[in-house]
Design a protein that fits this description.
232 residues, Rossmann fold, Arc Repressor Mutant, subunit A, 5-stranded parallel beta sheet, 12 helices
């Protein structure tokens, strides 16, 4: 059975170039042209019990093709799906003007490799990147990599280990009572820890003052790798 890739690309010319290479490598290509189309296709596949094995996502997607916001938001949405928390993802862009530190910071947290196509020039074999990323490598092409020092400044970990562990179990879908049983603590302690997380993240302006548990979990999913809490 061939591997299945989600290729999110609105340019017909760029799509055809990548599509030929993927199909030559015997991959099944599922194309989407923007964020909403990609999420719809993933949901539709999921309803049929089908998942993808890799995602290649152009950052400059409609309606804002001249900046990377739509592509980054799509990657964040995919990472929020339980079945795709560890999906190998390659972001790429041919944008001539891009805030590399900001983009690399977001993509590093989201565990998405980033290939800037325009500065590379020459003949690009996208499958070379795909093969390495699937083997567990995190890749940055030269232009993004040269901005890595500015992209990942030092930030102290705002949460203690027990708070990370509690968020992890709630993120896994456990109820407060189930978390308490798993961690061998009282149910009230789970509630207290969640309130402590809310207080810490609110005071540090990481989440809104009226943040709900869903907001805390969204913060957890986006920042756990940054603070080395990808696995408790």
């Amino acid at each position: 059975m061939s591997n299945r890739i989600l290729l999110v690309e609105d340019s017909g010319l760029q799509y055809r170039s990548f599509d030929i290479e993927f199909k030559d490598a015997e991959w099944e290509v599922i194309r989407a042209i923007d964020k909403e189309d990609a999420l719809y296709r993933l949901r539709s596949l999921g309803e049929g019990g089908i998942t993808i094995d890799f995602a290649a996502i152009d950052l400059g997607l409609p309606p804002a093709k001249d900046e990377p916001r739509q592509g980054i938001e799509l990657i964040a949405a995919i990472r929020a799906m339980k079945e795709y928390r560890d999906l190998p993802i390659m972001a790429y862009s041919s944008l001539s003007k891009i805030n590399y530190p900001a983009v690399v910071r977001r993509l590093t947290v989201l565990r998405a490799s980033f290939i800037a196509i325009r500065p590379l020039g020459g003949e690009i074999r996208i499958m070379d990147f795909v093969d390495l990323i699937r083997r567990g490598y995190f890749l940055l092409s030269p232009a993004p990599a040269s901005n890595l020092h500015a992209a990942v400044p030092y930030h102290p970990d705002p949460l203690r280990a027990e708070l990370w562990g509690t968020l992890e179990k709630i993120n896994d879908g456990l109820t407060h009572n189930e978390v308490a049983d798993f961690l061998k603590i009282a149910p009230d302690t789970v509630k207290t820890r969640i309130e402590k997380v809310r207080q810490i993240l609110t005071e540090s302006n990481e989440v809104p003052i009226n943040a709900q548990t869903s907001d805390l979990l969204a913060w957890y999913r986006e920042h756990r790798t940054r603070y080395a809490w990808d696995s408790i």
